[in-house]
Write a structure and sequence with these properties.
CATH topology of the largest domain: Isopropylmalate Dehydrogenase
Structural class: alpha/beta
CATH class of the largest domain: Alpha Beta
Number of helices: 12
Strand content: 15-25%
Order of helices and strands: EHHEHEHEHHEEHHEHEHEHEEH
CATH superfamily of the largest domain: Isopropylmalate Dehydrogenase
Largest sheet: 11 strands, mixed
Mean pLDDT: 93
Oligomer: single chain
Helix content: 40-55%
CATH architecture of the largest domain: 3-Layer(aba) Sandwich
Distance between the termini: 23 Å
């Protein structure tokens, strides 16, 4: 293995899902080792189960074992509190490595929210919440990236009603500032940010909602006054097409599905997630645990390879306007 490549911690995700399988496939094919020296974090028994499901041999593997024994009733595709514990402990261990600077970045395989909740981590809805808890980060954000499109989310794991209430001038401005500052550290100076509208047709001058007038537009004006290259609000039914055409470097979406749908329709296979606001690099696959196909050996490892490539790009400060 090339010792000049960065060391990347990869948490293996929920053992009952497809995380260990896609990890095993990526390692066996040599794809991950093209970009980094992988250090796998998880339960060794779960990683071996994933390799068996993928019908590949892992050989010697650098594993940081989280020390959670295999439950006697383990099976793929089933919500399990033990699997939830394994998943959270793996994220915590990988984050510790990244925070100490022992690795250049961390990459995460998918966790299952029901399993995490069953394991007693009631406030850890997803990776972003776990990482915010571990780091004490006041502001975090999710950025989805796929070739040709980047989207930062104003909010992620909120109901649609709660997400609409979260659209305030303060929150929009803070996310714009966080986005500009983080992307600059990753190598993209002065990103061109388009801010999506919340309501249909941008609110139609207040006829279909006043959030654009009272919250989003003032936040964009404040951001521009402070040197952030932001424009909007732009109706959501056109802003993503304009970004794909190259007019913007990224879009600030107002809620989870507004941004996720655009990314996944454009190029789901290569889409990855990055977390803004934490003091180290974390990227992730952009798919879930896929309990419906777990253990069958048919999961696609493309997103994990892309997430690893993205982690190396961000960790080395080489994020550009084109690609990641």
């Amino acid at each position: 293995m090339n010792s000049d490549l960065p060391l990347i911690a990869i948490s293996a995700g929920d053992p009952a899902g497809i995380g260990a399988e896609v990890l095993a496939k990526s390692l066996a094919s040599g794809e991950l080792r093209r970009w980094c020296r992988p250090q796998v974090v998880g339960a060794r028994w779960a990683i071996e189960a994933g390799a068996r499901a993928a019908n590949v041999s892992l050989g010697d593997l650098d594993v940081v074992d989280v020390g959670v024994p295999r439950p006697p009733d383990f099976r793929f595709g089933a919500v399990s509190p033990v699997c939830g514990t394994v998943a959270v402990r793996a994220v915590e261990h990988a984050a510790e490595l990244a925070a100490r600077g022992d690795v250049a970045a961390m990459v995460t395989c998918p966790i299952n929210k029901e399993a995490v909740h069953a394991a007693g981590f009631v406030d850890d809805i997803g990776h972003q919440e776990i990482l915010a808890r571990l780091t004490g980060a006041a502001w975090t954000a999710t950025m989805l990236m796929t070739p040709g499109l980047r989207v930062v989310h104003l909010s992620t794991h909120k109901s649609l009603l709660e997400a609409a209430r979260f659209v305030t001038a303060v929150n929009v401005f803070e996310k714009l500032q966080l986005t500009r500052d983080t992307l600059a550290r990753w190598g993209l100076q002065n990103p061109r940010i388009a801010v999506a509208a919340l309501n249909p047709h941008g609110g139609e001058g207040g006829l279909l909602g006043r959030e654009e007038i009272e919250q989003i537009a003032p936040a964009v004006a404040r951001a521009r006054a402070e040197g952030i290259d932001a424009v909007g609000p732009i109706p959501a039914d056109s802003v993503f097409t304009r970004a794909i055409a190259g007019e913007f470097d990224l879009v600030l979406a107002m809620y989870h599905d507004q941004g996720h749908i655009a990314i996944k329709v454009h190029n789901f296979a290569e889409s990855v997630t990055a977390t803004l606001g934490i003091p180290f690099i974390r990227t992730s696959v952009d798919h879930g645990t896929a309990f419906d196909i777990a253990g069958r050996g048919i999961a696609d490892p493309t997103s994990l390879v892309a997430a690893t490539r993205a982690a190396v790009t961000l960790a080395t400060g080489r994020l550009g306007r084109d690609g990641f």
